[in-house]
Give the backbone structure.
Amino acid sequence: METNNRYEKGTQVMEELFSQEVQSGMRHIQEISPDFWDMIVSFGFGDLYGRNALTLVQREYITLTTLLTQGAFDQLKVHIHASLRIGMTQEEIIELIIQCAGYVGFPKAVQAMGIAGEIFKTYEK
Amino acid sequence: METNNRYEKGTQVMEELFSQEVQSGMRHIQEISPDFWDMIVSFGFGDLYGRNALTLVQREYITLTTLLTQGAFDQLKVHIHASLRIGMTQEEIIELIIQCAGYVGFPKAVQAMGIAGEIFKTYEK
Amino acid sequence: METNNRYEKGTQVMEELFSQEVQSGMRHIQEISPDFWDMIVSFGFGDLYGRNALTLVQREYITLTTLLTQGAFDQLKVHIHASLRIGMTQEEIIELIIQCAGYVGFPKAVQAMGIAGEIFKTYEK
Amino acid sequence: METNNRYEKGTQVMEELFSQEVQSGMRHIQEISPDFWDMIVSFGFGDLYGRNALTLVQREYITLTTLLTQGAFDQLKVHIHASLRIGMTQEEIIELIIQCAGYVGFPKAVQAMGIAGEIFKTYEK
Amino acid sequence: METNNRYEKGTQVMEELFSQEVQSGMRHIQEISPDFWDMIVSFGFGDLYGRNALTLVQREYITLTTLLTQGAFDQLKVHIHASLRIGMTQEEIIELIIQCAGYVGFPKAVQAMGIAGEIFKTYEK
Amino acid sequence: METNNRYEKGTQVMEELFSQEVQSGMRHIQEISPDFWDMIVSFGFGDLYGRNALTLVQREYITLTTLLTQGAFDQLKVHIHASLRIGMTQEEIIELIIQCAGYVGFPKAVQAMGIAGEIFKTYEK
């Protein structure tokens, strides 16, 4: 069944990107609207992230940049964790934020850098 | 001399990214405000693009995404040309736009795809 | 007196939309700038919401959508309460958020859905 | 077959919303990226617009508002035509734009009103 | 009569800011929606610009900056003309755009600078 | 040495704008990325704010407006403090926010006014 495949593929992508803790944090959406949850998994992660043409790291370059640009800092947090999980280095994330400064201005870049710094600390001993 | 180095490095990056035609199109800014032009070259291309931690292709992933997200379609045009010039494929650009659809919505992604399509045609026989 | 009519009409609209609690929460603006408060009531609620061509529910469709699109989540909260108060159903609000996902992307839609879910809980026993 | 159903439902919605002329104008996307076209039809129009909980007119209230708010004026044009086609009146559209002025400011509202006026003229004898 | 005073004050402000040519260009809004036109004049120019606490030049600093930041370049054009008309210098406008570059990024600042340059040319012999 | 001059000039501007407390709050950026910190000081405050063509008060008109327009309320807080420190009055700040209401809509203006009110209180006995 086609729909199940989309949902399953989305679930697999989410397993790669997010820790169990993050995933259960997302689950409150499922209680409010099971249909919306289905779209997030099947379309957002299945149809989009599940495509082969780019690696997950390349996709996170895109995701981190668009979230920073639109000022969606709560989701940026989630995806900085995801980026580290799939192998981006702290240096790459810092560098991405610096590159953004020239394109979106310092206020959003500074805020993103502060968030990244907080997250990096939690990975230290 | 430090300042000259920043400006020179920026000039080198611009040579890699932009054709002579695009570069002369940008020069009208220099006539309006030589100081602003200096900032674009020294800070924008020298300080930011000139850093070693990311490749130019990685930087264009960031640039294309932020321009699409903020709806800066004139500059997007310039950077789609730049991306192709430094070795990104048409497929990669299409894929980047598709990934953005889930993060910024279809209106901006559709507009970007239309622009990309127009540019791709000019590279065909 | 014309001005008073605009202010009075605005006050009536606010009575319909907002609980006493919400209204007193808004009053801190009046202390900071009585003139600005007068504009909010006379122009925002009197001149705009007070027009006959649309119902309050139709106006809240517009208000919820624009607030979600611009990421003004604090005001979105206030207007989800208002929407329920004037007769929109929880299902309609969920549906509006889902429709927005395609136009503004998932990050803002997910954040709005989370906020809506929190509010819906407070209306349960 | 599930996927076909999503695509077919999307096609039906597009028939209701858009004239043949508008639909063929959209088809250039299909040539650039058949996959992206499929997402627009199956997800955008099938999954979102194809849901029963809201009428098409209610959905266009949302669409017009989000496009105006994000300054996507090319798509706004397309959806003002669509709104008139499915039965919204010119007065309703004017009223929606006026309500938006208070929420997004006059610049975008004035631009939208100018666009609406141009379109309304084409419907006169 | 109060309303008339607001409209009259707005008309006076518009006379100071805009040439006859610009003012008649704005009048198409009045044909589409006389009520919206009244709001623009009475609220936008009467209530806001008509206040005494700031000079028109100080208000144009605010207006130019917000228009550049939100990418409302058509209105930016109108207000660059207005700014020059009420006594801002070309150097001040260039400087304002440069300051914005750090806060909104180069793409919007470059676009604004190009627009300013075009306008400045029309004031030369 | 040129670079040092840019950094020193930036440091001087920051001394004028920000209290010691605010400045140390900003220093966490330096720990995360010394290079980014150098750009903020040398480019943001040295190259931009350090130019002679506008006064610091004129620059804060621009900064407050762009921060309000882009919804960067955390940085708005910092710059309302800075504006008061360099001699803007509370009335000027209120007036700037009122002027913005017509250009960006009430939601962001109301939020900014609330923030300003909170800050003004801390300056009272």
